[in-house]
Amino acid sequence: MDLIPTEIKLAIVRFLIEESPESAYAYATGALTPVRQAYVRQIHFTALLPDYVQRRRSETESEKQKNNEAFSGAVASLMEFLRAWLSPHDGGIELQLSTACAIDLRDMRPGMGMAILDLRERRKRCLSSYVALNKGFYRQLPELPAVSKFTCPAADMNQRRLVPATCCEIASRFSRLRAIDWHLADGSHDSDFRLQLRNDFAAGLSSASSLIPESVRDFTLGYSSAPCVERFFPDEDPRICPGAARDALSVALRNLSVQMETVTLQMTSIGSEFLWDPELPPDQQAHWPRLREMELNFDGQTPQGEELFDWDPSDMPDDDPESDPPSSLSRVVPIPAQHRPYQLAFARAAGRMPKLRHLCALCGYQVRVLMDYTVRPGGAEFHYEDYQNSPVVVGLVTQEVQEEWWKTAHAHLREGDEFHFEVVDDGAVFEFRRRNSNGLPGQEPPERMVIDWTRVI
User: Fold this and answer.
1) Could you give the CA distance from residue 96 to residue 450 in angstroms, rounded to a whole number?
2) Half-sphere exposure (Cβ direction) of 35: Cα atoms closer than 13 Å
3) What burial letters (b/e) apply to 286-296, b meaning 16+ CB within 10 Å?
4) What percent of the chain shows pLDDT beyond 90?
5) Phi, psi (degrees; rounded to nearest 5) at 138
6) Which of 19-33, 41-55, 361-375 is least confident?
7) Degrees, nearest 5: CA angle 317-323-324
8) DSSP 319
9) Rounded Cα–Cα distance for residues 384 and 394 (Å)
10) Residue 416: left if φ>0, alpha if ψ -120 to 50, beta else—which one?
11) Least confident piece of the model among 60-69, 413-422, 423-432
12) Could you name the domain of life of the organism this protein comes from (predicted)?
């Protein structure tokens, strides 16, 4: 096989996958001799689910159980195969895990000519399907020290979604895991099931019963939820965690993040308690001894359904009862009372990250507000800007917020270093240009509003 040209080997593998995905797994496991195993750096594994005949938008309970059993068996076979390797190499292996039904993989190939209606039904079925390990099954799986990075890509239209807690269960078997990169969702239309997915995920991450190995240092999570996406429809309930004072997932992510060196979160919604718990005194707040970089990107809504942005007055509906209501994308004006807990949480938490080099937060349905804090040799700088150019940003950054960032800079800098604080607000300028796009003579645009100061430690 080593003497066969690469293009012919690729054609053989492609033929195996198209004719029978099961035979591709048998070929891959047979071809990985002990000598070749030392050269493997990445493994992309798709657990195959049973075929189905009837075209339904959702699966029956029997089909769900069969999917879970097939997924559990596939994961067990993979991990038993990897355990048999003679020796894990020093750099570790990246394991990418996904799951799909074999018939979907075959039918989605180019040239299959599926009807548009059938494609839509298939897509709805895939997006509503969640696959998990059988209850307690993960305890039977072998430990795999060879895996150093665990990746779960976002499910596309011919793949099924993994139950988030299942990812935690599988990760618990990788005793030397260093990095996690998951793109998950709790986008079910069933609000009770959606909340169960979120709370079970939080339980898998929480400090009391965490399944995540202590060796993990780099954590990336994309986690989308149905409500904010469905806010385009006014009848949808905007709350992700109805009735909850605190979001359990936000708290669990905070507890997990304290062991990390880098954290990247792209969330539909996250609470300010992710960084600063209002129910705890300052001396009991979280401390991040290793954290160097954190990036947080979230939409304009709290888990309890409170909006962080108000409507753009120019996009408000008229008095016509038949006019379309404005969508969430028209919410562009920051609401000070809702933003301030996030601003204070970021400023206070950053002061408890002694090795921090960069902290960035992007907030809004189309990235409306940017908060960026950077520590560099000889100084630090904070930048706050509204990408939508709403004319209220300067008013958002109160004297209390500025002083909190000044305290944080003191924690990171030495005597003689400089701290530069800048808030940019082009809202009035932007609005003038929008209303005077025809270039009316004799009018000058207003000055941009800026908070800009530098202090020496």
Assistant:
1) 46
2) 2
3) bebeebbbbbb
4) 33
5) -60, -25
6) 19-33
7) 80
8) S
9) 9
10) left
11) 423-432
12) Eukaryota
